[in-house]
Amino acid sequence: MSTSSRFAVAVHVLTLMARADEEPLKSEQVAESVNTNAVVIRRMLCELADSNLVVSQTGSTGGSKLARLPERITLLDIYQAVESRGVFSLHRHPPNPDCPVGVNIGSVLNDVLDEVDSAVEGVLANMTLKDVVSRLKPCVSTANRKTVTPAANGKRKNLSRVQSVSARN
Amino acid sequence: MSTSSRFAVAVHVLTLMARADEEPLKSEQVAESVNTNAVVIRRMLCELADSNLVVSQTGSTGGSKLARLPERITLLDIYQAVESRGVFSLHRHPPNPDCPVGVNIGSVLNDVLDEVDSAVEGVLANMTLKDVVSRLKPCVSTANRKTVTPAANGKRKNLSRVQSVSARN
DNA sequence: TGCAACTGTAACTATATTTGTTACAGACGA
DNA sequence: TCGTCTGTAACAAATATAGTTACAGTTGCA
User: Fold this and answer.
1) pLDDT at residue B88, as a whole number
2) Distance from residue B60 (CA) to nucleotide C11 (C1'), in Å?
3) B147–A contact, CB cutoff 8 A
4) For helices A6-20 and A27-34, what crossing angle results, to 10°?
5) Kind and range of the H or E run holding A57
């Protein structure tokens, strides 16, 4: 399916800000936690700002912070801000219009794919950024230790979500 | 999100076979309806055969047909046969393990993404290939006309699913 | 038996999309 | 005015999907 990691990264970024409270974070700081380039983060922050999820300020004391309380930001808001297309795509090239199946399979599939999208959105609408922060909590307080709590290395139900155990470098 | 069209194509292919009844279809015929290369179809047929959704036969009178009745093949079966990964991915490179958020955001996200996957699977499990064929029916009988019934040009709720109106060549 | 018509598959190439990088203009506080 | 930010353009790298060519092996049939 080749999904992007944009949603995962966006949630990560906003989670950092939720925990930073009102303190604006610099793209460089965020990039360090996400483990990517600061420009990638800034690009994403622009999209999040377009959707009114964060506010950024330029200048020497600049940075970005949440535009509203974490409990008022759902994962659906985040998803819609950074993932434009739906879950599936139709054919890359349109099917043969001279074939009775080809000519209207797209219509049938669209209905199905809309249902799928709605289901996804339903799940995402039910969780807020605050919920994410809470679920994260268990490992905090004993700041910056290197050891990971065993439960923190959860595995997906299904397979390869990339990154899982050991990454590629 | 950059989803693939594999699911759409697979449903298309199996729909053709459902309508062909027991008559085996040649990859060339299928490719013509899907509007792609026969090898692309044969590759997909191999995957579908691995999942026991179709049976193929080599030789001069060969071809492929459904391995069981259309009412016994769900869209979930098809999805699982051709789309390996879940709907979303985690970070391409693992986040910074020295950051309290980075170290276990993956675990929280995994839970969410599992929920999303389950929701998608739930929707797909509720429709069979037979249902798809039925929904297709309205336009048949008056074979091979070029005009499309107005209702057949349905649009997605959201935007660009590719292919929509005019394609790219 | 030999041919023609298939499938299965390997090995590429082409195309698209996402991610990462470098560079720099402009904003802004001190 | 200077240093430190953001915003953004332009491009390179990485990845994944789709399309193409080529060919070995299978099978029905004359």
Assistant:
1) 86
2) 25
3) no
4) 120
5) strand A54-57
